[in-house]
Design goal:
flat; 41% strand; disordered C terminus; six-stranded mixed β-sheet; mainly beta
Length: 1427
């Protein structure tokens, strides 16, 4: 605040001295008009020290306002003159002077004039007669007017009312006020009104009316004339710089000519405007380069060549300032130079004045005689543009005026010279703190005054600043260029002259780091309408970070980012432009600043839009059948034009634009083919990759083509057979555009085939599209018909083709036969019928179909409701006729599927033959019944009762027709509704199995929630279409805790019932919670909505339970008081201390259990050591292709858990003996156990074999083991699980193996010479996996103890022969099972001999046994069969 006060005081001190006057308020215009009797004023206000006095001069003579009878007064404190009642004698040239003893200031000269509007000279009414189509001019000589009057033309009616004449390109007014008609029309008679010229003076607020003109237009037909000059502006004109150029051309002619403008020596300026319907050229703000040659052109359709008028335009100028004089304040001994330089055409002359007195002598006046100027060597005039006064003293204060003038006007300037002697004063001190960014240049203020001009010096600290990057400017300020961090410090300035010195306060300067942009915006190209987004980020000095801001500029102008399309994200400072338009293209600048410095980054946005319309579309040449069009390409809008589309319209269809041709973007002219006898106008449309632009303006002229014969004939000639006894013909009429000349009509010739006479018909109305000819022939009689077009110049150029047309059609006489319904669904059926191919031939069409065979109509309905359920289905013959058929008659079978049948209904169906207009008699009816379908919607679905958590729904069954079957019940679902958002559908939450129940309670809902509830009806085919109702639950009401009763307490169940709130319609969800007495966790039952009871199950007998009932109403739960109940029977002990007897019993039972377990174990061990027990083999079973040996145990015991041998098959289906059942299978290492029932007799065999090298006996032992049986057995077959012949019964009694794929074991793991399957191989033998046919490679001679086929327990001592054999077979099976993984398959044919050998060994070793193994598909079993 203190520096500001100091500055103000400094200015006051500086201006406290004397100063010459200066007029700062004066008239801005040099001609002032007044209306007698109305107040007018001339302004003049000046300042200076001391206050100046005012002097007025009129016509160079001193004017005293006080001597004007109080009509003229001068306002107090200023020199403004006020004329209260001006008169004519007050006219003159006024000038104001202000004098305060230190100089005289002069104003501009003002010409005060009286406003005048004279009347028109009286002339009688004038009558003008003109031939229609000729031009007409109505004269007007405006009266004298100050200021100049505006001229109008008006129409005067008989009642004296005035109406302005509306100008257009046919009726206009020239610059001299005359009314011009380029061609007269009957409308110009104006219904008997007269034309008058009117002059209006805005200052006088008065109008003057000229003489009346009456117009009569003779003739009916307008006289056609080419364009010719009617009135134009003078050919040689000059205008002043800064004014508006106006040139006008009016051309006569009929039709009304179009006027075009051009500049001959250069293009027209961008400031050019075409006015007055093309007749006037205007150029605003004229410059010297607008001078040149201009030309107007008039053209109409009758013109053989253009009518032209050329203009020479010269530009001159009134004086304007180049170097305008300025006020000078100087000190004693200094020099003062005043420069006065103006420009203008012609070159201005200069006149200098000192205190209002001319510097030089005139013809009748003396110039300046002031001794400071006149004959004073200190004053000299170097040239006409400047004067100088040297070695100034304190007495050299004065006013100096300069006037520059030429014939077009003048400019005037008034300045002063003031000489001062002052001690230096620092007017503007340097700031106390200055922050600068490194690299910038900074100016430290030290603005000083004083005369003579003070010398200013600067100090940093105590050091004087000199040179380098430091520069003291003329006004005393210090400029530091490209500051660095070391420039920080304290700065002061000192100003001194001969009268003293002044020192400023200290300026502390701080240097900050630069602000930098780190993320630069990228150039973008977008299509108009899409979004453009620029991103920008940066960093700045840490101490100034809080002041950092980012803003955007477009083309160096700051963007308004709160615009609806332009926004800036304050989080990332990105700039987004939505819905871009082409004008958004430009250079976008991101500016990051902290108030001290800034950084800028630029990005270019290119918005590609559709091209602008082409301009200057003109008809270059018009011919009889073509026209050449030219144009100038418009602005491309950043996407190059690809092609142009040329369109035309005609006088027949002026609103219909037709695309005639497309041309490449390189072309600007094109030739278009035209129709004859039409008036064409054209326009051009540009297209780029963005899209098609707007069309250009249509051509101002039109192209008229001459008449000619029609090019073509009417199209789409056809017969219509809907009217009996009539030949009705129809065609597409030709539009006027296709007539090609006057007198257009259609010509029709008709002859019955077989007849000799042609009948000719002429249709004059071209809009007609049909004709009806009465005939006496039978239906569908053929005729030869020819239709062609013609006009007054002749027939169409296109040859008319004679066509065969048929007369009317009638009801067909035939009907389909053998109509059958072959397949029926719920809503569809497959229908077939037969018909004759003769119906497709001409003879059949005429006699049987009586028209064109169109197809068939399948009609069907509910047998008991034909009217309401009748439906038809058309089958077109094109879709069903065979590709070839006999002309002599062939029966054709047609089969189609008809839809939209009524489910679960008795239907009736029939078929009819149809032609184009009629259907024949129906076929024999077919009757059938459709299947059951899904039902329709339930009826009258309503929600009658609502609560906070439930809805009671009622509905009615679907109608009998909509049931579509036997109703089986209903399903209920729902979903929440939140405005327009639907929640997840809770489908089928209620199932109602009784179709007679038409009410349901939907519970478990939330309070105050809107729901959409669905109800579906169901049949055996599924549920049908849903009916739904939207309903809201009520607010949740207060609920008292439930009261319940307990009854029917049993060992593990208890029944709980409660009182419902049915009376209040509250269908709450109830459930029961229970827990053992003293427990912490509660258990709960299922929710109950409609029932008022619940059965609690799974309780422990003899136990106390706590029970309570809970009500849930959507958001809140209400708990009843708990009750304690005890289930029946003894309760379980809770601890040993509670029941001592129970503890003793449990201890005793434990000891007994342990003793029994030990006894059983000992018996078991003893039984395993027993030998010589009876050994009877009853069967071997293979399950799922895995060999599993089963041995018989406990013959005296029946097992009620026995199950069939093969799963999911009867006993007989797999070939096993009836009565064979298997209970269980157990495998141990080295042994197996099974129990088999056969004919109610049980045999037991215990296998306890220790396989070792000593027990590797000969094959005789195996033979003995297998030969000790009651009956002989043989291997019936070995059948593959996947064999194609697996169902065949193979016989192998001769040890021959039948079947291509068989599974069996190839080798044994332990040493038995009789089991060695392949002696021809080396150390390895192979075997085949039982399930998958894979071959197993094992080393021959491998011992049981060393191989992975060692299946025997080590502690077993021995075994009898029979069990040994069984045990061997078991180990063989176990080997195949264990080696299943990793086996590989070999060629089965190469192994046949090995397989046969194995079978022979097995067969020979088992002679005399009860049975032999037999393989069974999928579940394999060896069954005992008698030999």
């Amino acid at each position: 605040m203190f520096p500001g006060i100091l500055i103000c005081l400094s200015f006051v001190l500086c201006e406290a001295g004397n100063r010459p006057p200066h007029i700062h308020t004066q008239p801005s215009i040099k001609d002032i008009y007044f209306k007698p009797g109305e107040t007018i004023e001339i302004e003049c206000v000046a300042d200076g020290t001391p206050i100046p006095k005012y002097i007025w001069k009129r016509n160079s003579e001193v004017f005293n306002p006080s001597g004007q009878d109080d009509r003229v007064v001068q306002l107090p404190g200023q020199g403004t003159l006020v004329f209260n009642n001006p008169e004519s004698k007050d006219e003159g040239i006024f000038q104001c002077f202000a004098d305060n003893g230190y100089g005289v200031s002069a104003s501009v000269k003002v010409n005060l004039k009286e406003a005048v509007l004279k009347k028109f000279l009286y002339l009688p009414k004038m009558t003008h007669r003109v031939q229609a189509g000729n031009y007409l001019t109505l004269p007007c000589t405006p009266p004298q007017s100050n200021p100049p009057a505006d001229v109008y033309w008006v129409l005067r009616s008989q009642n004296g009312r005035w109406e302005a004449v509306n100008f257009d390109k046919r009726v206009s007014m020239d610059f001299e006020g005359r009314l011009r008609f380029t061609n007269a029309k009957k409308i110009d008679e104006a219904a008997g009104r007269t034309y008058c010229c009117m002059a209006s003076n805005y200052l006088m607020r008065d109008n003057a009316i000229g003489p009346e003109h009456e117009v009569y237009v003779t003739g009916v037909t307008e006289h056609k004339r080419g364009a010719h000059e009617l009135w134009t502006s003078p050919s040689d004109q000059f205008f002043l710089r800064g004014q508006t150029l106006r040139l006008k051309c009016i051309f006569a002619g009929s039709p009304t000519p179009e006027v075009y403008w051009e500049r001959i020596d250069a293009p027209l300026s961008d400031r050019t405007r075409i006015k007055s319907f093309g007749q006037e050229l205007r150029i605003t703000d004229l410059e010297y380069y607008d001078a040149g040659m201009y030309q107007c052109m008039g053209l109409n359709s009758q013109s053989t060549q253009r009518a032209t008028k050329a203009f020479i335009v010269r530009i001159e100028s009134s004086p304007y300032w180049k170097d305008k004089p300025v006020d000078i304040k100087a000190g004693v001994g200094a020099k003062a130079t005043f420069i006065c330089r103006a420009a203008g055409t012609p070159t201005p002359d200069y006149t200098w004045f000192i205190n209002g007195v001319p510097l030089e002598d005139g013809q009748n006046s003396l110039g300046v005689r002031d001794p400071r100027i006149y004959n004073n060597p200190r004053f000299f005039k170097a040239n006409t543009n400047n004067i100088t006064l040297t070695n100034l003293t304190l007495d050299d204060h004065m006013n100096i005026q300069c006037n520059a003038s030429n014939k077009h006007g003048y400019v005037f300037s008034d300045v002063y010279l003031n000489v001062l002697a002052e001690k230096p004063t620092i007017v503007k001190l340097p700031p106390a703190l200055k922050k600068v960014t490194e690299g910038q240049s900074v100016v430290l203020d030290c603005l000083v005054t004083g005369k003579p001009d003070p010398i200013v010096s600067w100090y940093k600290g105590t050091s004087l600043i000199t040179g380098g990057r430091f520069k003291i400017m003329a006004n005393g300020n210090l400029l530091i260029s490209e500051v660095v961090m070391a420039d920080a410090g304290d700065y002061r300035c000192n100003a001194s002259n001969i009268y003293g010195s002044s020192m400023s306060s200290t300026c502390k300067t701080q240097i900050r780091s630069k602000t930098r942009i780190t993320q630069f915006p990228m150039d973008l190209e977008v299509v108009a309408g899409y979004e453009a987004k620029f991103t920008c980020a940066g960093s700045t000095d840490f101490d100034e970070a809080r002041h950092m801001q980012i803003y955007w500029e477009k083309d160096d102008k700051r963007l308004t980012v709160d615009h609806q399309r332009v926004s800036q994200n304050l989080n990332d400072n990105s700039l987004t432009i939505s819905g871009t338009v082409v004008r958004d293209s430009g250079v976008y600048t991101c500016i990051i600043t902290n108030g001290l410095d800034e950084d800028r980054a630029y990005a270019i946005l290119t918005v590609k839009g559709r091209p602008d319309p082409p301009s200057s579309v003109e008809i270059e040449r018009c011919r009889d059948d073509s026209a050449t069009i030219q144009w100038i390409k418009g602005i491309e809008n950043n996407a190059p034009v690809q092609y142009f589309i040329i369109q035309y319209n005609t006088s027949f269809y002026p609103d219909q634009w037709v695309s005639a041709k497309s041309v490449d973007y390189t072309q600007s002219t094109v030739t278009i083919d035209l129709q004859h006898w039409a008036n064409y106008t054209f326009r051009v449309i540009a297209t780029n990759k963005i899209g098609t632009g707007l069309p250009s303006q249509h051509t101002h002229t039109f192209c008229r083509t001459n008449p000619d014969r029609p090019r073509k004939n009417p199209r789409n000639l056809r017969s219509i057979g809907d009217t009996r006894k009539t030949l009705k013909l129809q065609w597409t009429p030709m539009n006027e555009f296709e007539h090609n000349g006057p007198g257009f009509k259609y010509q029709l010739t008709v002859r019955r085939i077989g007849g000799s006479k042609y009948d000719t018909y002429s249709i004059s109305n071209w809009r007609n599209s049909f004709i009806e000819i009465q005939i006496n022939e039978t239906a569908y009689t053929p005729y030869n018909v020819r239709l062609y077009a013609r006009n007054s110049l002749g027939d169409a150029k296109e040859n008319a083709v004679e066509k065969i047309m048929y007369s009317f059609e009638d009801i067909p006489k035939v009907r389909p036969f053998e109509v059958k319904v072959n397949k029926v669904g719920d809503t569809f059926a497959r229908v077939s019928w037969r018909w004759n191919s003769t119906w497709l031939h001409d003879d059949g069409k005429k006699k049987e179909i009586r028209g064109e065979m169109k197809g068939f109509k399948v009609q069907y309905w509910r047998t008991d409701a034909k009217t309401s359920s009748f439906y038809e289905h058309e089958v077109l013959v094109e879709n069903i006729k065979p590709p070839s058929f006999s002309k002599n008659g062939q029966t054709i079978l047609t089969e189609v599927v008809v839809h939209k049948l009524y489910p679960y209904s008795n239907m009736t169906l029939q078929v009819r033959v149809i032609n184009n207009y009629y259907a024949g008699p129906p076929s024999q009816q077919a009757f059938f019944q459709t299947f059951e379908g899904v039902p329709g919607q339930v009826q009258w679905l309503t929600a009658k009762v609502r609560s906070s958590n439930s809805i009671t729904l009622t509905w009615k069954k679907p109608t009998q027709e909509d049931c579509n079957g036997v109703l089986m019940g209903y399903e209920v679902g729902y979903q929440t509704v939140d405005g327009l958002i639907l929640g997840i559908l809770q489908d089928s939450v209620l199932f109602i199995k009784n179709p007679d129940i038409e009410r349901a309670i939907l519970g478990g809902l939330s309070p105050a929630q809107k729901y959409r509830v669905y109800v579906f009806a169901r049949t055996s085919r599924g549920r049908g279409e849903a009916s739904f109702v939207e309903v809201s639950t009520s607010l949740e009401l207060l609920t008292t805790p439930p009261v319940f009763n307990v009854f029917d307490i049993k060992k593990s169940t208890v029944n709980i019932s409660w009182a419902t709130e049915e009376a209040s319609f509250q269908h709450a969800v109830h459930y029961v919670e229970f827990r053992k007495e003293g427990a912490s966790a509660w258990y709960r039952t299922m929710d109950e909505v409609q029932r008022s009871y619940s059965l609690v199950t799974d309780l422990e007998a003899g136990t106390n339970y706590e029970i309570r009932v809970v009500i849930f109403k959507g958001r809140h739960r209400y708990y009843s008081n708990s009750k304690t109940i005890a289930t029946t029977a003894f309760s379980y002990p809770r601890s040993i201390a509670v029941n001592y007897v129970w503890f003793i019993l449990m201890l005793t039972s434990g000891i007994v259990t342990i003793a029994v377990s030990i006894l059983i174990f000992m018996i078991y061990k003893q039984r395993r050591n027993v030998k010589g027990m009876p050994r009877y083999k009853r069967g071997i079973v293979i399950m799922d292709s895995i060999y599993k040996r089963r041995f018989i145990d406990k013959a005296d015991e029946d097992d009620k858990g026995d199950r069939p041998l093969v799963k999911d098959q009867s006993e007989t289906s797999h070939g096993a003996k009836q009565g064979h059942f298997v209970k269980e299978i157990r495998f141990n290492r080295g042994g197996a156990y099974e129990r088999v029932r056969d004919d109610n007799k049980y045999v037991r065999c215990i296998d306890k074999t220790d396989i070792s090298d000593e027990e590797n006996k000969s094959s005789n032992r195996r033979s003995t083991m297998y030969s000790s049986g009651e009956s002989n057995s043989k291997i019936d077959s070995i059948s593959d699980d996947y064999s194609k012949d697996s169902d065949n019964d193979y016989s192998d009694s001769d040890n021959n193996l039948n079947g291509s794929d068989q599974y069996f074991v190839d080798s044994l793991n332990y040493k038995q010479p009789s089991i060695n399957l392949d002696s021809s191989t080396d150390d390895n033998t192979s075997s085949t996996d039982v399930r998958k046919g894979k071959t197993i490679k094992v080393k021959s001679g491998e011992t049981d103890g060393d191989s992975d086929m060692d299946f025997a327990d080590d502690d077993e001592d021995g075994i009898d022969e029979e069990c040994k054999d069984k045990h061997d077979r078991h180990n063989l099976i176990q080997y195949g099972r264990r080696r299943e993984q990793g086996l590989f398959r070999e060629n089965i044919k190469s192994q046949k001999s090995t397989k046969r050998k194995l079978l022979n060994d097995l067969t020979n070793s088992s002679n005399g046994r009860h049975g032999q193994p037999r393989y069974i598909k999928k579940k394999y079993a060896y069954n005992s069969k008698p030999s």
